[in-house]
Amino acid sequence: FSSFFFLSLAERTPKHTAKHRPEMGQSVSGLKQEDIEAMMKATNFTEYELRRLYRRFKKLDRDGSGTLTTDEFEAIPELSQNPLLGRLLSIFDKNKDEEIQFSEFVGTLATLSDKGSQDAKLRFAFQVYDIDGDGFISNGELFQVLKMMVGTNLNDVQLQQIVDKTIIEADLDKDGKISYEEFCAIIGKNSEGIGEKLTINWQ
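Structure (tokenized):
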């Protein structure tokens, strides 16, 4: 079951996307040099990569507010059909103000880029399931996320049986929930491919 538990998320995350090629002379006003330097240190993106990402961000910011609203985020072609869109939005929106700032946008993309470590990608996947952010995946949270994934392919009784079985198998300390360490353990050998499966290119 660990294959379904993890890979069903990974397979719904785009591995590659069409590269955005900025027009000649396109402005990147609003991105300060000190901001660039801070983000370079935090993300390992180069200045060139950050400027390209900023151009893409500005195109996505249709109302010119300097942030991505929920509607703008949901309209991103690479994500619009993802059943976990709401969970992805929550992870991008680190300060929970329902808008995505460029620093938040870049921070999450750094995790999902080829510069992100395997541990960072595993923690990203864990966050998708940890809806309340308490560091554990409860039975109810696992049910909610898997329900988003499977839609009507399974009825609630069938899905609950899968969730209960997973909790029993993964919950090594028998506290009724899955910790990050237990999450990594149930993924097991499937974690070897996480670098590829949770790596995207939005440039």
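The longest strand covers residues 68-69. The chain has a mean pLDDT of 81.
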